[in-house]
Design brief:
Length: 297
């Protein structure tokens, strides 16, 4: 998807449509009302978008930090609610037990089924709420377990950006992580203990800043390490392909390859495809030379 920037406040975001569309296309033909997504969520202005072709890693890292903090805060709230509900259940059980105990001492005590019914109903509602909250807690726990502390990610992003810049004279190498780690020098590939897409883009942008040439390493004997022939032909014919067109091509012709992941219920571009799209957005072109694939500006 294209990246756009608000010309008033300089806010940068990834958008569904190009800046021209955001600025001019109404919801329905003939309508003067612009779609909601045309408004800048930072300053509230509309029709102020321009295409952003600059660096984006810091914006992605900031968004990742916000997502992490939101998930962490929600998890904290859920845990507090769970604790409160547990206390409420114990309080209600104790309260009702004491009420029945006092009533039983009275000479006029007569068992009323409605009292028992209300007791069980209220406590059961609390238990149902508790179970629901615990399920939500488990989902948030899983989500957080798949995320790394943004402080660590941002630290590592700075490191890989510098490494990529320093290695630029020799060139950097893209491709399946498993394959390139066996075939390429470690100084020319993304090598970090932690990972996020923002960190990944930081590494790519280190190479862009260093004006390096990227080589795309493929393995014809393994479809997951290779580019389908239909896509390869198109790239040879259109080496300056636009990033959005490239990703659409990956979706329609790249399933089960180096460029499109469609396993385990997922259906998305591979990280390699997104790395390539990032380079294409920065005006890199494909270069086919000596049976090798490069991306060069």
């Amino acid at each position: 998807m294209p990246w756009v920037q608000c010309s008033k406040c300089q806010y940068i975001r990834e958008a569904k449509f190009p800046a021209y569309h955001l600025n001019t296309i109404p919801i329905h033909p003939g309508s003067k009302v612009l779609p909601e997504y045309s408004m800048c969520t930072n300053c509230g202005e509309q029709k102020k978008w321009t295409e952003h072709t600059g660096l984006i890693a810091q914006t992605i890292l900031s968004n990742e930090r916000l997502a992490y903090e939101l998930a962490y805060n929600l998890l904290t709230q859920k845990r507090k609610s769970i604790s409160d509900i547990r206390i409420l259940i114990k309080t209600k059980e104790k309260s009702y037990a004491e009420q029945f105990k006092e009533k039983f001492k009275e000479s006029t005590f007569k068992y009323n089924p409605n009292d028992s019914f209300h007791l069980h109903t209220e406590i059961q509602l609390c238990i149902d709420t508790l179970v629901s909250l615990m399920e939500e807690e488990a989902i948030l726990n899983k989500k957080l377990s798949q995320m790394t502390d943004p402080d660590i990610i941002e630290r590592d992003a700075t490191t890989v950006n510098k490494k990529a810049f320093d290695a630029s004279p020799k060139g950097l190498i893209l491709g399946s992580r498993q394959f390139v780690s066996m075939k390429a020098p470690i100084t020319q590939i993304l090598d970090a203990a932690n990972w996020s897409w923002g960190l990944n883009v930081s590494w790519v942008e280190g190479g862009i800043t260093g004006k390096t040439i990227f080589e795309l390493l493929v393995e014809s004997s393994n479809p997951y390490h290779n580019i389908p022939n239909d896509i390869l032909v198109t790239l040879q014919q259109t080496p300056n392909i636009q990033s959005d067109v490239f990703l659409s091509l990956c979706e329609t012709h790249g399933a089960g390859s180096l460029l499109w992941y469609n396993q385990g219920g997922e259906n998305r571009p591979t990280w390699t495809a997104l790395e390539i799209a990032t380079l294409l957005r920065m005006n890199y072109n494909f270069l086919f030379q000596n049976n090798k694939i490069y991306l060069k500006k």
